[in-house]
Amino acid sequence: xxxxxxxxxxxxxxxxxxxxxxxxxxxxxxxxxxxxxxxxxxxxxxxxxxxxxxxxxxxxxxxxxxxxxxxxxxxxxxxxxxxxxxxxxxxxxxxxxxxxxxxxxxxxxxxxxxxxxxxxxxxxxxxxxxxxxxxxxxxxxxxxxxxxxxxxxxxxxxxxxxxxxxxxxxxxxxxxxxxxxxxxxxxxxxxxxxxxxxxxxxxxxxxxxxxxxxxxxxxxxxxxxxxxxxxxxxxxxxxxxxxxxxxxxxxxxxxxxxxxxxxxxxxxxxxxxxxxxxxxxxxxxxxxxxxxxx
Length: 294
Ligand code: SF4
Known about the structure:
Layout: H1 32-45, E1 53-57, H2 65-68, E2 72-75, H3 81-91, E3 96-102, H4 103-109, H5 111-120, E4 125-130, H6 165-172, E5 176-181, H7 185-197, E6 202-207, H8 211-215, H9 223-233, E7 234-236, E8 253-260, H10 266-274
Parallel strand pairs: 1-2, 1-3, 3-4, 4-6, 5-6, 7-8
Antiparallel strand pairs: 5-8
The chain binds iron/sulfur cluster.
Residues 26-27, 30, 32, 61, 131, 135-136, 210-213 line the site of iron/sulfur cluster.
């Protein structure tokens, strides 16, 4: 370094980044970086004690988040982020556990784990980056791939309808559900803070462009055109039933904070049955109407 050159000033997020692992693997124009930055900002904004936050991810491009964040973080096997998070939460109940993974990992191989974690109201936050395909493995069709879209495994068009992940989460029992795109950074950060403070299973879907694997095959254009694609279609509707917010890319993309309510968490109910005060089923006289705090 010459005498005139000065070292780069520290970045405000440096304390939470494993910069020694950079450059990261994400392609130019990928939306995952914006979601990762929003997660880091939310952890800082929420002032969560850093030794009480853990990040768990599965396999895929989004799964790399766990490798780049300077926290207790766990890059687990494909589809198994939620079983790992379940064990972590039960062993360390005061830890804020955030599962950050992609649509293929969470809803294909991990789909069964997702529906049961939501049903149990496991007190974790799931941040799902939905890039409409399996990006890392070359662009195969996923449970999120729109009808008619081209992928390496649907070269003439996807014959399947995709899941509405938010409706699925809500129907399975999630008590916090939101959807944003990578354009909605401020709202996304607010939602992540709210979800991490929420007691129960919280789910946030973030629509993100994958210019390399999905955008290229579907003639979306340059990475900026993938962002414009969301900009031109996004419509915010808060507090609606997510089943009324299907992802119809030919018309509009409904985003918003759809659901937030309380019900006992899995650990609440474990504690309840272990106190042996329930009485005999079906006359569960001792069952509290509201969850106990704590
Ligand atoms: Fe992002 Fe797609 Fe590249 Fe993966 S393949 S890093 S999702 S642009």
